Amino acid sequence: MREDLLTELENEYAQLRADNERTEEMRKEKIRMEQPRIYELTKERENIVFGTLRNIVNGTASKAEDLPERMEKLNEQIRTLLTENGYPADFLAPVYHCPLCKDTGRTGETIKEPCECLKKAYQQKLRKKIGLNGTRAETFETFDASVFPDEKIPGLDFTQREMMQLYKTVCEKWANEYPEAEYRDLLLTGSTGLGKTFLLRAMAERLIERDINVLIISAYKMLEILRKQYFENDDSANELLDAQVLMIDDLGSEPLMQNVTVEQLFNLLNERQNRNLSTVISTNLEMAKFRERYTERIASRLRDSRSCKVISLLGKDIRTGGNLKA
């Protein structure tokens, strides 16, 4: 998990607990003012608990004391009086949103593990951080092969729909198995409107579900960061270097700057490969044009069949042709 997002969540959980305590105190004060009898019972309950604890510490606790039975009797009286006077039975119970972790974000006695509520909150923050809109519209579960033409691609023995079903399976398998997947990197190529960005985002969603630190960034935004690092010695590019999985969308659409873009991109890919971190790239460029634009040095890094899987999408733009549903 990313430390910056975890810090945000820890602060939010601390604020939530503080809000819970204020709510509890306000409810106690309301009962003190409006229901003296119930308030007396709550004080009696507190005295029994603290008195028993003092006796335990002093070694004078009596085995004859039946604390659970006495406490349950008081609790039942308090609940009954609350409901009789128009309050919820749990009005004076501890306040928290998550019954598993009691709004601490952690579960377990000796070894503390992230609670499911913390994981879900973290995933939402990560989605927002990397530009996923939170609707989870682009996932493997929402993949619909029927939007692709069910006719053979010219010169080939399979249809665009069959091809996309296959590549959906390949990408889903990679996202499920990372970091033990067969390939470290993926390169998705093909013209506009073939589903590259959808597959990229579906993989990101699956990785987030698996608590993998993933970052999606457009090639244009990536170039802005790399230029800032080059000219201003800015450290914002560290995020590009540190993400377990970096996804660069639409590489080839960004403007080139002589002796800057290519060199910075090479350094980024080289450093990530040296760290054995995964990079997933989508591009509208065919490999020949990709090599021409980014040089053979970068192209060779992404054509290494031992560490990079190239996925070449073919067919019609489903946004202007095919069987795209309204």
Spatial extent as radius of gyration: 29 Å
CATH architecture of the largest domain: 3-Layer(aba) Sandwich
The first-level CATH class of the largest domain is given as Alpha Beta
Order of helices and strands: HHHEEHHEHEHHEHEHE
Structural class based on helices, strands and sheet pairing: alpha/beta
CATH topology of the largest domain: Rossmann fold
Total E-strand runs: 7
What's the arrangement of strands in the largest beta sheet?
4-5-6-3-7
Identify the overall geometry: elongated
Question: How many DSSP helices?
Answer: 10
Q: β content, as a range?
A: 5-15%
Instruction: Give average pLDDT, whole number.
Output: 86
The quaternary state of the protein chains shown equals single chain
**Number of separate structural domains:** 2
CATH superfamily of the largest domain: P-loop containing nucleotide triphosphate hydrolases
Main pleated sheet: 5 strands, parallel
How far apart are the first and last residues' alpha carbons, in Å? 38 Å
User: What are the segments in which pLDDT stays under 50 over at least 5 consecutive residues?
Assistant: none
- Helix content bin: 40-55%
